[in-house]
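Table S4 entry, Ribbon-helix-helix protein, copG family.
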Amino acid sequence: MDRHDAIDRFHTGDERFAELIDTGQPAGLPTPDTDVPMVSRSVRLPVETYERVRAAAEARGIGVTTLMRQWIEAGLADLDDSATVSLADVRRALAALAHPTAA
């Protein structure tokens, strides 16, 4: 049966449509990387910004959206004074303490 016939069966309420679905192949959707329900949002970024984010994600071996989610979570944690601090920030602070500038 071709696509056109399947659409006709669906729109006419043909009871055999359910049988057609049962005989189809599984879709093979990708497995989510988390058990937490997620919401998809679109974000507009300049190309240069996106390329920097993509390169940063690639350097960490993670996906772009995973890195963006981590940054958003860290930013939100900063707003409510929770303990999320990036390792890069800790290293910069320690380096500044080790080499204080003259006042």
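The two ends are 81 Å apart (CA to CA).
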